[in-house]
From TrEMBL:
This is LPS export ABC transporter permease LptF. The gene is lptF. GO terms for biological process: lipopolysaccharide transport; transmembrane transport. Its main location: membrane. Keywords: Cell membrane, Membrane, Transmembrane, Transmembrane helix. PANTHER family: SLR0882 PROTEIN-RELATED (PTHR33529), YJGP_YJGQ FAMILY PERMEASE (PTHR33529:SF6).
Length: 388
């Protein structure tokens, strides 16, 4: 690779990482905060929460990466154009491939990386996250309930304990169960313990108060009473793996006995083709960015900032691809649309690059942009900075 190509590639990579890290951090933070209840509801340690947050991070990379690449390429080449570096490259007789070649190689490399991430790393991380959450909620009372605090287990079921003893023992139990509209139950017990399976709460030396819809209250004392937790533990600890949790190999040849596959076979089909087609995004957005700012241009031309134009086109492609995926879940004929969206966008960009043409705004829009730019320059004075 030539020195000039290395120089361009280095600047683009630095700008790409500069754009990727903050955006990735913001989206990652919002996703992590949605799962803060792992600590507040299940009594897990901060270390477990940080482990969960770390596993979420790889699932976001492939989504953010194409847009960070657009910002990296357009911002770098626009700055080089403003500094007349692209004009100097043209004047020196260098071919357009000097600018395009390192960026296309970068786009191809990120396409391979994105394919590996969406095909194998992301589903593996999703499975780990789901397993961790289900495990945290499986053993309901022995890990969830805090001392001297009413905790809502589910709608209509509240539990409080006075003290947690060594092992699985509990002291001072109070359970309010109003899940059944025909009766309200309140359980008191001096002592209790959760069995090893986590599916039964054994209460000792207590009483049960039952309130009927008529208002009548019945009190029954007991020496030993078993409160069934199996339904709660299974419901909250059960892990269901959908199409997004499967690797590409499993999506290509799904287990015909898989309950989720039987219920939603279209999801598996659409997800398989989504991963392959979405992996093309990095190379496609590279071509889009080069189409908008891959050559020297005059500062006096009236046009949108190349970054804005490229991001609008990349976002449009992203939204259309997601919409095509949704349609493909219901109708297999839309699978071709999943591939057509990135291929058409990439093909159109490649055509403009090969023909050395620039996409132009419609005349009315171009005049509006030109008038707005001229008016802004007049207000800012003759020494105002020029538009990119």
């Amino acid at each position: 690779m030539k020195i000039l190509e290395q120089y361009i590639l280095r600047r683009v990579v630095l700008m790409f990482l500069t754009a990727l890290m903050p955006v990735l951090a913001i989206i990652w933070t919002t996703q992590v905060l949605q799962r803060i209840n792992l600590v507040t509801d299940s009594g897990q340690s901060v270390g477990s929460f940080m482990k969960l947050a770390t596993m979420i991070l790889p699932t976001l990379v492939s989504t953010v990466l194409p847009f960070a690449l657009v910002i990296g390429i357009t911002q770098t080449l626009t700055t080089m154009n403003n500094d007349s570096e692209l004009a100097v490259v043209d004047a020196a007789g260098a071919s357009r491939s000097t600018i395009r070649r390192p960026l296309i190689l970068l786009g191809i490399g990120l396409t391979v990386f994105s394919f590996f991430m969406v095909s194998y790393v992301e589903p593996a991380m999703r499975v780990s996250v789901r397993t961790m959450i289900s495990t945290a909620y499986a053993d309901l009372l022995s890990s969830v309930i805090e001392e001297k605090t009413f905790r809502k287990i589910e709608d209509g079921l509240y539990v409080q304990i006075t003290q947690r003893q060594s092992g699985r023992g509990l002291k001072g139990l109070l359970i309010a169960d109003s899940r059944d509209p025909s009766s309200q139950m309140i359980y008191y017990a001096r002592e209790g313990a959760v069995d090893e399976s986590g599916k039964t709460l054994i209460m000792q030396d207590g009483e049960v108060q039952r309130k009927a819809p008529t208002g009548d209250v019945t009190v029954i004392r007991f020496d030993r009473y078993a409160f069934d937790l199996s339904e709660l533990s299974e419901q909250r600890g059960q892990t269901r793996y959908g199409a997004k949790d499967k690797s590409l190999t499993e999506l290509f040849d799904p287990d015909p006995m898989d309950a989720e596959f039987k219920r939603k076979p279209g999801d598996y089909r659409a997800e398989y083709h989504r991963r392959i087609s979405s992996a093309l995004f990095p190379i496609v957005v590279t071509l889009i960015s080069l189409m908008f700012c891959g050559d020297a241009r005059s500062h006096r031309e009236a046009h949108l900032h190349p970054m804005v134009s490229a991001l609008i086109m990349a976002l449009t492609m992203f939204w259309m691809h997601n919409y095509a995926t949704t349609l493909a879940e219901r109708d297999a004929s839309f699978v071709l649309t999943q591939y057509a969206v990135p291929l058409v966008a990439g093909g159109a960009s490649l055509f403009y690059l090969m023909a050395d043409k620039r996409p132009a705004l419609p005349s009315p829009v171009s005049r509006m942009v030109g008038n707005a730019v001229s008016a802004a320059r007049k207000r800012m004075g003759p020494n105002a900075g020029s538009a990119a």
